[in-house]
Amino acid sequence: MSTNLTSLIVAVKGAQDLEEEGYIIQIGNGASVDTVRNLAAEKLDIVGSTANIVLEDAEGNTLDEIDRIRSQKVVYLNTKDSIKSVIPGPTKLPYIGNLYEMMPDMNAGFLRFFEKYGPLIDVSILGTRMVATCDPDIAEVFVKESEYFTKKIKTTLKEIKLFAGQGLFTTDTSDPDWKLAHKLLMPAFSPRAIKVYQNEMGIIAQETIRILEQYKPDEKVEILHWTTNLTFETIGKIGFGYEFGLLEKREAPPHPFIEAMGYCLKQSIVRFSQAQFMKSLPLEMNRRYDREVNLMHSIVDKVIKDRKESEDATDIEKDLLGFMLNARDEHHQGLSDENIRDQVVTFLIAGHDTTANTLAWFLYEISRQPEIEAKVLQEIANVGITHTELPSSEQISRLKYISMCLKETLRMHPPVRMLGKYCQKDCILPGGYKIEADTPSVVHLYGLHMNPKVYPDPYNFDPERWTPEEEQKRSKAAWLPFSTGPRGCIGMAFALQEAKTVIGMFLHRFKFCYDGPAVKYDPKQPTTKPVDLFMTIQNRTDFPEPSADAEVYEPKEASGPTKEMPKLDRSIEMASVKLPPITFLYGSQTGTSQDYASVLSNQARQFGFKDVTLTDMDKWKVLDSGKYEGPTGVNEDRELVVVCTATYNGMPPDNAERFDKFLDKSDAQGNERLLHGLQYAVFGIGNKNWRTYQYFPIKVDSRLDDLGAERFFLSGKGDTDGDIDSDFNDWSAHFWSHTLSHYGLVISKDISVVPSSSTNKEASQAAVVHYISPSDTEKWDLGFNNRNGTHNAIVIENKELQQGDSGRSTRDIRIDVTKLESVGDNDLLYLPGDHLEVMPENDPETVEAVALGFGMVLDSVFEIDQSSIVGLSPRSLAATIKGPCTIRNALTCYADLLSPPSRRILGYFAAQLHKIAPETAEVFDSLTMPDVNNKDQYPEFIKKYRTLLDLQKGFPQVQKIEIGQFMAAVGVMQPRRYSIASSPHMFPKEAHLAVGVVDDVVNGKHYPGLASSFLAHQIPGESKTVLRAKFKSSKGVFEMPADAETPMIMISAGTGISPFRGFLQERAYQYKHASGPVGECLVFFGCRREDQDRIYGDEFDEYVKEGVISGLHVAYSRQIPPSNRKYVQHQVLANANEIWRLLVPADETKKPAVVYICGSGAMSRDVRATFRSMAISFGAAKDEEEADKFIQKLMQDHQYNEDVWG
Ligand SMILES: Cc1cc2nc3c(=O)[nH]c(=O)nc-3n(C[C@H](O)[C@H](O)[C@H](O)COP(=O)(O)OP(=O)(O)OC[C@H]3O[C@@H](n4cnc5c(N)ncnc54)[C@H](O)[C@@H]3O)c2cc1C
Ligand SMILES: NC(=O)c1ccc[n+]([C@@H]2O[C@H](COP(=O)([O-])OP(=O)(O)OC[C@H]3O[C@@H](n4cnc5c(N)ncnc54)[C@H](OP(=O)(O)O)[C@@H]3O)[C@@H](O)[C@H]2O)c1
Ligand code: HEM
Ligand SMILES: Cc1cc2nc3c(=O)[nH]c(=O)nc-3n(C[C@H](O)[C@H](O)[C@H](O)COP(=O)(O)O)c2cc1C
């Protein structure tokens, strides 16, 4: 087979030994010079932009045409500045390195070195060697967390770590403590989250203004003192609810914490330039250092202890401390007390000093530039900020010119002057510098921001550098006062919001004047502080009027979600509150979303909403009228719509297709106000195993906005692969808290905002059950025949596919499907790739055990009183079973007895058991919500009590529950899907399934999967082999190419092979019957062992012989001896050329292959990653991001298709 790939050896210019230093790359037909540059750069660890890389032949001639490159054996890489093995820098003295030359101002020392040795220098200070840069391209590489560079606490931060401990600032990226804290704390600092702090920031600015008003107009004030007090109080109050009393009066003494912190921070610089042994000498300096660290720690420990003992202990929304104490990740892991202590110290340090400096420098700079000050004042006037009223976050976000001035201030006076990074893998930097692993690497921010090549006239304060046009001309890494990427400042949005609030309010009230010499920074301080910045503070008398063309600011009610739990006005009586109509829409196929919408609608009624609608998305009245026609003006009248929807392959559920088309109207111009006036919130339901996780809910959320509706509350997401009830509880508790406070409603203790809580009305409701007398033979007959659908499919064969002693079971099940409704074309019942949906049944032993426990007689017939189900979950047995039914049928064909007992069931049982078994009720109650320490005990509980039967055994009191309560609490079982493993042309009347039989063993006990074990137990020929089944079409999602000539690449593991057996049968049929050529089929399959679970192995081997399969590659994960191609993706990679040849054919007249992947979510993700790296290797993409886009494009074109599960 001819491939169109060219192999080249690439090496860095000057390489002596190609065996050792050369790497092979392969390029395809479409490769360009850039492809070669990128591939070679990756192999040779050349980092950063590849634009400066020059390709040369052995003689040093430049190779700038792809054809010339192809004709080479070896291509050498050089850079425009040539490759340098040695990084320049001053000669280092023994022991002290370059310390003397850099003193007394290390910062200035660095600048001198940059000027002398270039943008990358190698320096050493008392044994700490580092490489530092002032160049944006190199800085970009240093700050990007990558395999080459990371943050490791090595240089100056080593000293700060002594008191900031494992806080975010001073912990290595690789440390799990950093990872956890970063993950948990990021959401608390998003621009949206910090909006709730707006008022507090304004109040603290007002308090400071009141103090500054006490100064006489000619009195000199050290302005940094007050900006520091202000920022310290802000972080103390907002972060930890702590007041340091610094703004109480003019002469307020400094807080001991601040003094301690100030001392330690200053000492950190002294200690950095000290020999190691000095730090352990019994000097007063060292003793005081230890005392101050202890003092800081003990103050913070007390703040934490007080909070933990207060009634706000579990309030996650209270402030940052509440968040730290209560936030948990997906594994329910939270921060330890010690870690929280370190974080609090870190936030107190990082959260005030930097912003205080910035404010002081800002006031200084504009006091010297009247024209700039005039523009700043005009902007404040136009936006309508005064010092008497608290500005809103919307006003603050409109201060564009002040943002430009702040950027310029931070450029000239970056509070943090150096970013300490660490090289962890040898590489070649932009500019051609070779750098070795284990080298501390520093971005010298001051040098970067003052680099004249980047900022002409760098010592001139010029906000015009920050117009969007100017900014675009520079590299993003040219301005890094907050650093960037995962290790960038978490508090950037907080700092900027605070700074703008203070500037707006201060300048409205005062004029700050400075008439002394140019102010310098203090080199002995770790942050850039102005020395002796004494200003006078005068009343503002020249504040301008808003300009004529200024957009008048109209305050509007905050509509987004608030992070803060609302404070509810208990004085308002429910009756006096006017509530709008509220509509709950659901897009649901198997009932989850419908259930949640129904729960929310019940809650709405309980809270006093009168006009409540619950309906399918497609039945929403607005779809008929084409636009929202309700009130638009006053907030309280406007309709609120809450959408709960799932998604299927990224598409809408069946009952939301009309709704989806309506959303697409936002593509057309003129529809921006179709939903004007409407308010909405979305809760999305999905499963993370799907690449298209939450696609449709996300679309709903953004398109409703595009159509003019107003987002009332931030959308929520529930993952059915995780603890979806918990996701829903969490979101709805916040949603209701927000809603109730928005409309001024009182939360009653008796009505919980948490849906599954036993205090909810639904939980105390029971269905009314009537038993039917045997004399009513008509109803008895109906009862015996009521089995949740029609039994329509007959099992005709059921064989084991596993061999040897694999210990597992996979069944080959053949089913007569002639009675099913067709989903195929042209008389075919189905198409290859379609699914069969099977309704499982509980086994008789389980059914009997449950009936016995709950005192139900299996062959009695009952009927649910339909008037009693209003308000019950639509997925409850009571709401689902219609008409007479035997208990046996209800427990066999309807009841979900094997899933873990849901929070809803537990809440329900708790409500019923409060009086008769209060202790059990209490246990169940505690499981519906996290406890006071925010520990969610539910996940552990259901490990122990996996099913209703386990619960029955562990808590016999539940058996006191009556039948009506049982029917209201217990849910209905869900159908299961199976990929059809046959072709309708080969087996027109049959559908074959390959069913992996689930058999979980926990603590020695077997838990068979409901549907797979039900199917495995079907004995062909017996009367009970009749199943309830339905076809589900995969058209447009996982269907064979329309044209038989198109090659197919099929990749699967385990039972994921099912649809491919169908595809191959179909191809075999096409071989015999197609008039034209039939495309190649490449098959990749993964299983454990050749002699055990290579299912359908003989059939596939036969297809190879017949030529239906052109290449079959099997990976064995547990073969003895182990194979080096363990998983299917390893086989894919090993056969990349063959795949690429078919996927991107050199001959344009040939049809490109279609790729299909089927099986587990994990496998499909790994295969996708393999395709990404192939795309890079073959030159279709230059990096991961582009490779991802490449695959996305293939997916859009249906050239790469996935069908995945669990
Ligand atoms: C589109 C699609 C196609 C599919 N095609 C196939 C196919 O061709 N072949 C195939 O074999 N499968 C296929 N499946 C998977 C199939 O639908 C079933 O999910 C699978 O058979 C398991 O179902 P079950 O009822 O036997 O197991 P379940 O009872 O649903 O149990 C499955 C797992 O859920 C968890 N679980 C269940 N109950 C509890 C509990 N009480 N406590 C704790 N954990 C619990 C366990 O991890 C258990 O292993 C497909 C799925 C989809 C969505
Ligand atoms: N098929 C059965 O006989 C059977 C029997 C009982 C239960 N089940 C259950 O049914 C479900 C599906 O079973 P199945 O037969 O379809 O698959 P499977 O047998 O569980 O797995 C098929 C192959 O995929 C491999 N694999 C695991 N992770 C992978 C990844 N990230 N990328 C690529 N390959 C990966 C497995 O290797 P390793 O397992 O060696 O890692 C195995 O070789 C599972 O939940 C299983 O527990 C199946
Ligand atoms: C103008 C104000 C600020 C500036 C210039 C600034 C600058 C920086 C810089 C440069 C870093 C990266 C340090 C490094 O790489 O070593 C950083 C990190 C950090 N900053 Fe800020 N900061 C400011 C305000 C704030 C505020 C207000 C907070 C908290 C409320 C804060 C909290 C933090 C934290 C916790 C980190 C460590 C993040 C991590 O690595 O995960 N900062 N800051
Ligand atoms: C065939 C199929 C396709 C699915 N596709 C997606 C998907 O693309 N994205 C997603 O987030 N979830 C997907 N899911 C998961 C469903 O959204 C999830 O099962 C949800 O609980 C269904 O909600 P419903 O019961 O309201 O229909 C899919 C489920 C199935 C069975």
From TrEMBL:
Domain Flavodoxin-like: 582-736
Top-level EC class: oxidoreductase
Region (Disordered): 545-566
Cofactor: FMN; FAD
Keywords of this entry: FAD, Flavoprotein, FMN, Iron, Metal-binding, NADP, Oxidoreductase, Transport
Record keyword Membrane present: no
Record carries keyword Phosphoprotein: no
Enzyme Commission code: 1.6.2.4
InterPro entries from the UniProt entry: CysJ-like_FAD-binding, Cyt_P450, Cyt_P450_CS, Cyt_P450_sf, FAD-bd_FR_type, Flavdoxin-like, Flavodoxin/NO_synth, Flavoprot_Pyr_Nucl_cyt_Rdtase
Top-level division of the source organism's lineage: Eukaryota
Family affiliation: In the N-terminal section; belongs to the cytochrome P450 family.
Protein name, as recorded: NADPH--hemoprotein reductase
Lineage start: Eukaryota, Fungi, Fungi incertae sedis, Mucoromycota, Mucoromycotina
